[in-house]
Each structure stands twice: as C-alpha cells, then as structure tokens.
Known about the structure:
By secondary structure, the protein is mostly beta strands.
Amino acid sequence: MSTPRDQLSLSQPSVSVVPDTGHIRSDRIETSVRTIADLHGVFADEAARSSIDQDQIVYHVERYQPVPDGTSGGLFFGTSFLQPGTVGGEYFMTKGHFHARPETAEYYWCVAGEGALILMDSDRSARAEFMQPGSLHYIPGYTAHRLANTGSTPLIVGACWPADAGHDYASIARDGFSVRLVQGEHGPVLVSAD
Length: 194
Ligand code: PAN
Ligand code: ZN
C-alpha cells in the first residue's frame, strides 16, 4: 500500500508561443523594429533603398530574455517577423551579425513563410539553407547569420541563443556578407558580393 504524499501544485508557465504565428505571449517581451531607413548600406542598390518609404517596416523581433543580458549559462528566445519584399531585386533581409562572443552557436527554426538562412564563416566562405515551416537550422559558432524572405508572406523564424552571445553588427556593417540573395528568372539565386 502506498503511503500518502504531499501534493505539490503545478503552475502555468509565464510565457508561451502561439503555434502558428510565433508570437510570444508574456508580460516581459522586448520588441525591436527595423525599417527601410535602419537598413542603410545593407542592400547592394542603395539608390533603390533610399527611394522606398523610409518608414516601411522590414522586420521586427520579439524577444524573451528571462535573465540579464550577458548572463553566462542563460538562454534567450526570440521570434523574427521578416516582411516580403525586395530592394533592387535583392530580397528583404535582416542586418545579420556574428555574435560578440563569436564561438557561441544558435538555433533557428522556421514557423511560417519561406526564405533562406545565409551563413558566412570568419574566412568569408558562405552558404545558404532553404527555410520552410518546420525546418531547423543549427548555426555554429564563428558564423555570421542573416535571414532573407523569398516568399510573398512574412517569414517567421524562432531562435534560441546564449544570453551572453551578444551581437557584433560592426563587422557586417563594414565588410558585408560575401554573398547576396537575389531574384533570378526561376527563383532565388545566391551571387557573389566580393
Ligand atoms: C536573431 C536576430 C534577428 C534579427 O534573434 O537578432 O533575426 O536579425 P539581426 O539581429 O541581424 O538584425 C539572432 O540571431 N539573435 O542572436
Ligand atoms: Zn544571432
């Protein structure tokens, strides 16, 4: 016969992710927005970028950061919402970055839409992976990463990265990626930018 045990109560988690939309539900979400104006110098055709409505939102990110930025051993969670569109034939994309602690890795997974994850090593050798709902992408350390939306609906991507990874945008702002994802006759084409 079993002995009576203390009953422990279960609690509702304080955060959730809406399955089909990727939206994070929590009272402590941080959101950052990037407009066409914020993407100065990102696209090859700067004249085309400057002729578009500067307030147009290209992407926004919802982040759940349960520990202070920089906490060793902690993890952050985010969802990126990248709108469809092109600038001079180049697909809308995120700024892209290395991590400030370059050895740190990250997971991306596609929630909705279609696109590509563009990856570049520190020696500037680059590659890209297709993204479609359900695809999971392991981004190793020392690898710059950027999303591009090749579809006609928002590309929605979940991400999980170390809380002390940090973001190094400066090297990409200075040197760019060595490849660009452009509209080809039969779909997206990765072309050299160096
Ligand atoms: C992502 C990115 C997000 C936006 O959460 O920060 O997709 O891209 P940019 O930061 O390049 O503008 C991530 O990779 N975090 O580490
Ligand atoms: Zn990252």
